[in-house]
Amino acid sequence: MALTLCFLLLLGLCGTTVSEGLPSPTKSPDVLEFELPAMNYETKDSYDAGPIGGLFQMVRVFLHVVQPNPFPEDTLRKILQEKFDISADYEKPESVILILKIISYEIGIIICAVLGLLFIILMPLVGFCFGLCRCCNKCGGEMHQRQKKNGTCLRKYFAVSLLVICILISIGIVYGFVANHHLKTRMERTRNLTDSNFKDLRTLLHGTPAQIDYILGQYTTTKERAFSDLDNIKSLLGSGIHEQLKPKVVPVLEDIKAMAEAIKETKEALLNVNSTLDQLKKSTAQLNTSLSKVKGDLEQSLNDPVCTVPPAAATCNDIRTSLSQLDYNNNLGQLPSLDEHIDRVNNILRTNLSSQVQKGYKSFNDIPEMVQNQTTDLISGIKSTLNSIGSNIGNISKQIPIQDKLSNFMDYINSTETYIHRSLPTLEEYDSYRWLGGLVACCLLTLIVIFFYLGLLCGTFGYDQNATPTRRGCISNTGGVFLMVGVGVSFLFCWILMAIVVVTFVVGGNVEKLVCEPYQNRKLFQVLDTPYLLNENWKFYLSGMVFNKPDINLTFEQVYRDCKENKGIYATLKLENSYNISEHLNIQDYTGNIINDFENMQVNIDNVVLLDEAGRKHLLDFNSSGIDKIDYDAYLAAVNKTPGELNLSLFADNLEAKANDLPQGNLKQSLKSTAETIRTIYHDQVIPLEQSMNTAYKTIQELKHNSSGLPARVTNILSSLDSAQDFLIKHVSSVIVQEMKKYGNTIIGYFEHYLQWVKISITEHMAACKPVATALDSAVDVFLCSYITDPVNLFWFGIGKATIFLLPAIIFAVKLAKYYRRMDSEDVYDDVETIPAKNF
User: Per-residue pLDDT for 26 more than 60?
Assistant: First the structure.
């Protein structure tokens, strides 16, 4: 019944469900993760027999020795084609050949069964004849033992042989007890196994609608993500366009901003240089005035009469000659003023170029806002389209009548479960009878071997080597009696035990070789999948049952394998041949309208102005201001002529030295006083002036350097500005189309990913049929093979082994009893003669 249940489950879900080739899901940006609710099943998909599994494997090895032939696929196909009736035309050559093939395959089991039947027939006859023979004082029945020289060795040999045989029989009995108990405990677990399988099937049936609801519910999640992106079109699409334009626009605006700062810096530099030059001019004039006064004072002092008297006259002449060193001529006064250039720059700066740049930034940064304002109506239309897609997917789910089929199949499960539960008590009752019969069989063998053990125990420990056969002790005699009782019980019951062994061997061996092994290696499925086997008009029987289309390649082996791998019913039964879901979940059918909406989206940002005409004029005016045409070399040459060339300090020292050569008087004092005045001028005027001129030189040099590249820089900025503005006017549409496509792909990608996931979930994961394969495994591999066949095979193996070893045990027990029992007569030897005489 369990096999019927599994087959019905494969057919019950066929209905009008479908499958398609399994496409790989397309990864969308920020992929939405979907996962069907997991179904937890109780029944294990594998069975472990535990330590006793080694014994089962030993029996399988024995069966392989007895029946080494491979699984007869061709023979079984022929039998199925004959519908198991090979006797109707048995005279036909085909039937004869088929029968011979069956005999050839079963030859090992047949031989063992024939030997068992011979044992069953001959053992009662042999026992009957042996009993009559014993009653006639034959066959060891005569209570007389002849003395032999090797009697002691024979007695020990018989005892050891019987002990070894009894041990082997005991091992077989243990196998029988273990197998009988194992079969009983496994039959007690059958109810739990059945309940867990039915619970798993119900979990599958009840979980499938929940999976359908989950699949439909995930559309809402997808739609909410899409709606969120549509509402954020400003930051997604607008910012995307903004980011694409940034490399083209921002550097230009930054250059203009930097140029505005450069113009301001140029103005400051001009003002600084102009101010410095004015100050230098004043300082230079003051220095010339001071030097002229000193020079006049010296000339007046040299008119002193002392200068006419040698040697003072020579000194005065030297001083008079060196007065030219006090002359300092500088061209600073001839340099033109920078006021005109400063006025031009001031006029340019009346237009705030920085504010013009900020306006350009604002116009450029308003692009996302412009995109949002221009797409409001389009976004509303796309949202309506997405809502309609949800309704269509819900309608498709209703067109797949999985839930209806599941509801109908629930009746099959309920009726089957009721039948099994109603039959289980009867099965358990019959199993109790079987267990009792097996226990009786094991106990009979146990009783026989106990008699043999007692006989060996009493005979061995009660035997007295000094006692004659007629005077043996009671214990020894009791041992012999036990041995003969064991022999008698063996003859009485061994044929019954062998009958049990033969029946269970033939049945269990064939079930193992014809059902269990081919089921595990799936050759049984291959036989069932033979074209035109189960129905002569159908190439593939299963597809004919499911779709009424027998040409579809749907096999039992493939269905079982897919269910074993926990694939969905849709893909397992290839239901796309009945309802192709790919035709109803065609992505283009749902996303085509959305794609058209995005393609027709119009976004106009042509009115973005990076720099207005006032700002452009600002740059052009600065470019024509003539800053770069100032004669900086003349300024540098004038500033570079420092008063340090006068070397007033040295002049003052020489003047003082020459004054010291003069005689004491007013002239000497006047010259020394003038030397001090020159030093004062040097420290107070020359050194500061020299420092100011050095600073002015560096400032003018830096201004020259900066202003030399300004025209080219302005020209480049204007060129880049024209290029960027031209790009915004003529080529920005391509950027918008590109970003629009990317944004549309993001929105559509959510639904493509969702629809792909829906198809994969329905075709691969929804209604995963692993419980079906598990139920079939539970019925065949676990219940029939592991619960029943393996213990039954171990039972006949153990009992048969013990029963066969009863034959040598009987022989040795009869021989050994002669040495333990008390005889009625014995051989007596005369001292003279060697001829024995019977003593009565």
Answer: no
Which one, of 692, 647, 779, 607, lies nearest residue 278 by Cα? 692
Q: Which CA distances in Å does 814 have to 32, 545, 820?
A: 86, 67, 10
Nearby residues of 832 by Cβ (< 8 Å), 6 or more positions away: none
**Phi, psi (degrees; rounded to nearest 5) at 768:** -60, 130
Q: Map tokens 């696929």 to a residue.
A: 73
Distance of CA 726 to the CA centre of its chain: 51
pLDDT on residue 6: 41
Structure token pair of residue 770: 């692993």
Tell me how far apart the alpha carbons of residues 453 and 458 are, in angstroms, rounded to a whole number.
9
Query: Tens of pLDDT along 98-153?
Result: 788 888 888 999 999 999 999 999 999 988 887 787 777 676 655 556 666 667 78
Measured in residues, the chain has a length of 840
Q: Rounded CA gap, 302 and 448, in Å?
A: 167
The Cα-based distances of 59 to 56, 66, 799 in angstroms read: 5, 10, 12
The sign of the CA dihedral 751, 752, 757, 759 is positive
Q: What is the pLDDT of residues 148-177, one digit of tens each?
A: 666 778 888 989 999 999 999 999 999 999
Q: Are 235 and 368 in contact (CB under 8 A)?
A: yes
CA gap 21, 76 in Å, rounded = 35
Interacting residues of 271 by C-beta distance below 8 A, sequence separation 6+: 342
Compute the average pLDDT of residues 367-387. Answer: 75
Give the DSSP letter of residue 768: B
582, HSE (Cβ side, Cα atoms, 13 Å): 12
Coil, strand or helix: which one is 537?
coil
- How far is C-alpha 361 from the chain's CA centre? 48
Cβ distance 625 to 348 under 8 Å? yes
Single-letter residue type at 762: I
Peptide bond into 311 cis (omega under 30): yes
Residue 774 phi/psi, 5-degree rounding, is -65, -40
Q: In what order do the strands lie in the sheet with 837-839?
A: 144-145, 825-828, 837-839
Partner residues linked to 266 by β-bridges: none
Long-range Cβ pairs for the range 98-102 (8 Å, 24+): 101/72, 101/74, 101/75, 102/72, 102/75
DSSP 384-413: HHHHHHHHHHHHHHHHSTHHHHHHHHHHHH
Q: What are the structure tokens assigned to 777, written together?
A: 């495994």
CA–CA distance, 605 with 369 (Å, rounded to integer):
10
pTM of the model: 0.67
Q: For residue 821, give the DSSP letter.
A: S
Name residue 827's beta-bridge partners: 838
Phi-psi region of 773 (alpha: psi -120 to 50; beta: other; left: phi over 0): alpha
CA 9 to chain centre: 32
CA neighbor of 357 nearest in space, from 34, 619, 649:
619
**Residue 486 neighbours by CB under 8 Å, 6+ apart:** 448, 449, 451, 452, 455, 809, 813
Q: Which residue has the tokens 């705030």?
A: 352
Which strand (E) or helix (H) includes residue 144? strand 144-145
Answer for the pair 66, 109: CB distance below 8 angstroms, yes or no. Answer: yes
Strands annotated E in 541-679: none
Give the Cα separation of 740 and 743 in Å (integer): 5
Picking from 785, 777, 791, 787, the residue whose alpha carbon sits closest to that of residue 191 is: 787
530: left (phi over 0), alpha (psi -120 to 50) or beta: beta
Tens-digit pLDDT profile for residues 403-462: 555 666 777 888 888 888 898 889 989 999 999 999 999 999 999 999 999 999 998 887
Nearest Cα neighbor of 101 from 63, 65, 69 is: 69
